[in-house]
Amino acid sequence: MALLEIKNLEKSYREAGGILRGVSLNVEKGEVVVILGPSGCGKSTLLRCINGLESIQGGEIYLDGELISNRKKDMHIIRQKVGMVFQSYDLFPHMTVLRNVMLGPIKAQKRSRDEVVKQAESLLDRVGLLEKKDAYPRQLSGGQKQRVAIVRALCMNPDLLLFDEVTAALDPEMVREVLDVMVDLAKEGRTMLIVTHQMEFAKAVADRIVFIDDGIIVEENTPSEFFTSPKTDRAKKFLEAFKF
What we know:
By secondary structure, the protein is α/β, with parallel strands linked by helices. The protein has helices at 43-50, 75-81, 97-107, 113-126, 142-154, 172-187, 199-205, 223-228, 233-240, and strands spanning 4-13, 17-27, 32-36, 58-63, 66-67, 82-85, 160-164, 192-195, 208-213, 216-221.
């Protein structure tokens, strides 16, 4: 059984019409799936539907065999299993780095403070930010904020990690420090669904590429096949913009 199962997902907005049109996708445990596609094709909306940030108009989403779509009363429980890292970091400015990381595990999961401190400090050390644990977000670079956001998601011990264009707001020199953390997560067998425009990163980290255009999955393939021999004209045109 796939860890994540999406069946015929439909998402629309009254003013914009259909954003996702019958999307079906499975993600196996330990698999890294990278979603590519032009801006506005529905990539980020797909992640937001999985994490319950957007309601859906049709279809079903299952996590480890359990229906999680449109269960508004249970979303606080589901989001403990599905961690999401956003482009905009979303750190609390009035809290230190350590308090930002610890808030969810203590408040939502009711875990002991000592246990959470130990895990949070271990994860911050792993991404090279332990010395920043008492700093505030305003004292961090963009790359450091994004690494804190990743640690915050990891500290909830999620089954699935969603990354939504996490390097899009970063200066070029800060992108690598964030991508290196994500590569390490992939190597340790984390299940991840990643939306990105970083093609070289996608080639290096993905087990599978899913290409979306106009709200539908146009093509799925291994990275080597997708980037060297795309099956569809639409994927070929997309890749031409990146001069592969």
